[in-house]
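Q: What residues go here?
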């Protein structure tokens, strides 16, 4: 009788454990000890992790990057046309000054935009530059979110706190994405990783 009761309790506990595990948010992926959630909520919508990878320069790891979309996409063109919110998450792997990060940002834009394209978003680029100027430095472990929220614009968060004002032009956010998934990406191995390619 006792054995039967114990078996029943064990079965119940096992069932509860399985049920709980199905409701817990899963950590979809990990790279060099940095974990990225399977889904995040941005602008009231659930976004899925499209891909993640590591930005390296020479032999140094600079940051881990994850791209979140409303639905998974595998080409830059499809990503640019996604309706709804989007998110790029950068987790710093080393310390950088705001000047170093800002210079890398501008290099990425210059490499992937024509002069005509840049001229259309010059005021937004300037506004984003002010955001970098307000951040003294980025430290190892810092988490930077760059979000596109329809009706709000490009919004930046550092360690959960909003930084600067929103930038309202979708063309500007797409220009930012081209830093990583454009024709001349900042890191040739990071681009396919963000597009969901499996290593």
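A:
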């Amino acid at each position: 009788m006792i054995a039967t009761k114990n078996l029943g309790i064990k079965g119940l506990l096992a069932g509860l454990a399985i049920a709980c595990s199905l409701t817990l948010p899963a950590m979809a992926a990990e790279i060099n000890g940095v974990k990225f959630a399977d889904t995040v909520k941005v602008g009231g919508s659930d976004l899925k992790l499209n891909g993640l990878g590591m930005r390296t320069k020479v032999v140094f790891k600079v940051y881990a990057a994850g791209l979140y979309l409303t639905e998974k996409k595998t080409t830059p063109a499809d990503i640019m046309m996604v309706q709804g919110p989007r998110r790029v998450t950068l987790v710093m792997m080393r310390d950088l000054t705001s000047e170093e990060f800002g210079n890398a940002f501008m290099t990425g834009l210059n490499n992937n935009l024509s002069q005509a394209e840049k001229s259309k978003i010059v005021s937004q680029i300037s506004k984003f530059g002010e955001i970098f100027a307000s951040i003294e430095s980025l430290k190892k472990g810092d988490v930077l979110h760059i979000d596109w929220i329809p009706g709000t614009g490009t919004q930046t968060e550092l360690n959960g706190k909003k930084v600067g004002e929103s930038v309202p032009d979708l063309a500007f956010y797409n220009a930012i994405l081209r830093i990583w998934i454009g024709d001349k990406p900042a890191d040739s191995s990071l681009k396919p990783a963000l597009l969901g390619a499996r290593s």
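A: Context that may help when evaluating the design: The chain has one domain: 26-194. The longest strand covers residues 45-57.
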